[in-house]
Amino acid sequence: MVRNFRKGLFATTAVFGVATALGASAETLDEVMARRGLTQQDLVAAAKTYTPTGGRDEFIVFSSGGQSGQIMVYGVPSMRILKYVSVFTPEPWQGYGFDEESKKILDSAKVDGRELHWGDTHHPALSETNGDLDGEYLFINDKSAPRIGVISLHDFETQQIVVNPILQSEHGGAFVTPNSEYVIEAAQYPGVLGRGYAPLSQFNEKFRGAVTYWKFDRAAGRIDPKQSFAIELPPYSQDLSDAGKLDSDGWSFTNSFCAERYVGGIENGRPPFEAGCSQNDTDYLHVINWKKAEEVYKAGKVTMINDFPVISMQTAIDEGLVYLIAEPKSPHGVDVSPDGKYIVVGGKLDTQASVYSFEKIMKAVDEKKFAGTDPYGIPVIAMEDALHKQVALGLGPLHNQFDSKPCVVYTSLYVDSQIAKWDYCEGKVLDKISIHYNVGHLVAMEGESEHPAGKYLISLNKLSIDRFNPVGPLHPQNHQLIDISGDKMELLYDMPVPLGEPHYAAAISADKLKPLVRYKYGTDSRTGEKHPDAVRPGQERIERDGTNVKVYMTAIRSHFTPEIVEVNEGDTVEFVITNSERAEDETHGFSVSTYGVNLSLEPGKTATAKITADKPGVFSYYCTEFCSALHLEMTGFLAVKPKGYVEDQTAMAEGQQYTKDDYDKQTANNVATQEVIDQVVTYITGRNYQDFPEVVSLVEDATDQLNFAADAKTKAEDAAAKEDWQNATLWAGQWWQYQVKAADIGLRAKTYLDEHGAVKTEQ
Ligand code: CUK
Ligand code: CUA
After folding, report:
1. Separation between Cα atoms, residue 75 and residue 598, nearest integer Å
2. Dihedral of CA 498/502/507/510: which sign?
3. CA-CA distance, 122 to 146, in Å (whole number)?
4. How far apart are the C-alpha atoms of 537 and 602, rounded to whole Å?
5. Averaged over 74-82, what is the pLDDT?
6. I want to staple 709 with a disulfide (CB 3.0 to 4.6 A). Which of 130, 472, 495, 738 is the partner?
């Protein structure tokens, strides 16, 4: 074993030697190009996206996961997927919806008492400070049930889900105001506010849309429903929204696609919704003064619906909160330019994109220059009084994203399967690129902030048709990476997305994200607070209160404490487990066979698995992450005694008997192992390791393990003094286990120092 350690220590150098030798005899670049049929242009694209081993990405994308109810996180330009963050859907790997802590979040996400096991995520929004992305929080909507999820980017976990009390359907969320004061959520399909009933024949009178402004409490990192409000809107089928910024800060914009207020009914011989909702040439852009609406709400001029404050349409008209502007046929995306001066709208059934001027809109509002009112009395501003430019782009303009270059915007053309690059100030097309196929949203790096970062654009395509190896009738979607740094757009990479149908994605500079490496000891990750039942090693115990059994447990490589839990049939058992590791990435799992339990215990985290022991038997629990060489040994038994079972007092029969020889062999091995550890320690402490925070934390971890080793050593020696060779040998074995872990961490630290150019220090 000792020899193996030495091998491990020096193997790295040998491996590098071999790799170099192989490289010399490998194919040349020309040969690879010929064999794979690659062009010069392909090579340039590859060089722009290829990320060598150990390399990191410049941007991080948070893509909606559509029907999965999750969010997909990937890097740009490599397009490597890094994580799925579960929001509305249980996800076993991360224990989301399996530990009691996260079940509370999913419980609070019930709608009308109904537990929902999925969500339709469309629009992620990153939190902003002064109009720029700050990398702290992420919000996302569920279109199928009107909900918003709040994700902390400190650990990429869902912290909260709020259910909209008045909407039955939503789509125009999540969009944030420039200091994340509010998260905007607009309705989609009209309903009776409060999810009530009215006959469809009274659609015009009883059905409504609305926009909700969810107050975000930055200090708490949560939406505060008690400070949130909504504004009642006509039943126009509101669609996307965006918040104003700079010049237009304090205002928000929401479009709509069925101002016809058409109600279909194919079964009764009526033309379908699609005919009735696209009959008129225009729909309405809603222009809303949310700052003023906030004052109106605070002044109490609201109606309570399902205990939620709603500003009625009449109040909104009286107070001058809402205006309408005609927008071309069945619009979809509405996006405010980085300087806040323009609002760009794509009309799905129009070939043009329309650019509205905020200055002109304000002029009409100030001069009360209206073309009339809608059927509900809301002032309508004439399109020509608000329009800056209209530009013919192609068929099916949907969504818009802004470049770092002034006045440059990119618009997706769904029907044409193209992206148009154009100048919204001058109103001219600059370039077009074909994509494969049917693009929905598109995302440019930080393209929604006041300071877009440019460089890359991703086309989020709905269909992939024939792009990838076939996997049956259900195809992945296709995210295509486009280089936008030059005058011409350049397609770089296709990424299949096999999760759900992504709609929008948000992209941020990677250096703005500062996620945790480990939790503070004993953290309930779902609240971010200290878990009341977290224990440290040595404090583990089993407590019984009637038929409730609580197991205060720790997990560390490679054992749970306690390892045997005995309960009675019918007991409720709660395993509250703290991962007492400090080492980066040393996550343990916890499963109880046949009981449907899986926890994810990242270093420092505390989580609870709760079961009803309704089936007598002996069930193993085990760690579900391959955490060390002795991972398979990270196990234990839950013994569920049948009702009325009478104990019989037999002592534990050992499978193996140990002698003094065994003990001596083990201790000799341990002493030799210690020499190797000492060498590694000398190596590390002989270098400026304290300049490397990563290494400092590894050294702390190793020190922890060595302290455990010392403790096991004492136990072994005590047993040996009593000539109890059984326990002496077993404890000596455990002493060695801790040494192995310390050595493993020490080697990680040594490798890190070697790779990061640590220098020798004076001893
Ligand atoms: S929507 Cu799907 S492509 Cu929900 Cu933003 Cu336009
Ligand atoms: Cu812990 Cu495997």
Report:
1. 28
2. negative
3. 12
4. 16
5. 98
6. 738
CA atoms within 13 A on the CB side of 433: 22
Instruction: State mean pLDDT over 712-719.
Output: 95
Note the pLDDT of residue 205: 97
Residue 126 bridge partners (DSSP):
138
279 or 641: which leads in pLDDT:
641
Angle at CA 481, nearest 5°, toward 444 and 510?
A: 55
**Intra-chain end-to-end CA distance of the chain, in Å:** 30
Residue 185: phi and psi, rounded to 5, are -135, 115
Query: What length does the chain have?
Result: 763
Residue type, 373: T
pLDDT at 693: 86
- Nearest-angstrom CA–CA distance, 325 and 361: 9
Closest CA to 290 of 170, 182, 169: 182
pLDDT at position 140: 98
pLDDT in tens, 269-327: 999 998 898 888 889 999 999 999 999 999 999 999 999 999 999 999 999 999 999 99
Q: Strands of 503-547 (E only): list them.
A: 505-509, 523-524, 529-530, 541-545
Ligand 2 pocket list (CB less than 6 A): 558, 588, 623, 625-627, 631, 634
Tell me which DSSP letter residue 650 carries.
Answer: P
> From ligand 1's centre to the CA of 593, what distance in Å?
42
What CA–CA distance (Å, rounded) separates 272 from 268? Answer: 10
Question: What is the rounded distance in angstroms from the CA atom of residue 426 to the CA atom of residue 507?
Answer: 27
Return the pLDDT at 13. Answer: 40
**Residue 647 gets which letter from DSSP?**
P
Strand runs labelled E in 302-427: 303-305, 308-311, 322-328, 331-336, 342-347, 352-357, 372-373, 379-381, 387-392, 397-402, 408-413, 418-423
Query: Nearest residue CA, atom 1 of ligand 2?
Result: 588
User: Cβ contacts of residue 471 below 8 Å, gap of 6+?
Assistant: 498
> The tokens of 686 are what?
């002989």
Residue nearest to atom 4 of ligand 1 (CA): 122
State in Å: Cα 386 to ligand 1 middle. 25
Q: How far apart are CA 689 and CA 554, in angstroms?
A: 30
**Cβ distance 301 to 292 under 8 Å?**
no
Check: CB of residue 186 under 8 Å from CB of residue 171: yes
Determine the pLDDT at residue 763: 53
Residue closest via CA to ligand 1's atom 3 equals 440
Does residue 5 surpass a pLDDT of 50?
no
Using the mean position of ligand 2's atoms as its centre, give its distance from the Cα of residue 586 in Å. Answer: 8
Assess whether pLDDT exceeds 60 at residue 712. Answer: yes
| Cis bond upstream, residue 595 (ω within 30) | no
pLDDT of residue 762: 67
- Span 514-532, mean pLDDT? 96
Question: Rounded to the nearest 10 degrees, how much is the dihedral formed by the CA atoms of 523, 528, 533, 539?
Answer: 20
Q: For residue 511, what are the contacts with CB-CB under 8 A and spacing of at least 6? A: none
How far apart (Å, rounded) are the C-alpha atoms in residues 689 and 763?
13
Helix and strand numbers, DSSP H then E, in the chain: 13, 45
DSSP 362-387: HHHHHTT--SEE-TT--EEE-HHHHE
C-alpha of residue 102 to centroid of ligand 2, in Å: 21
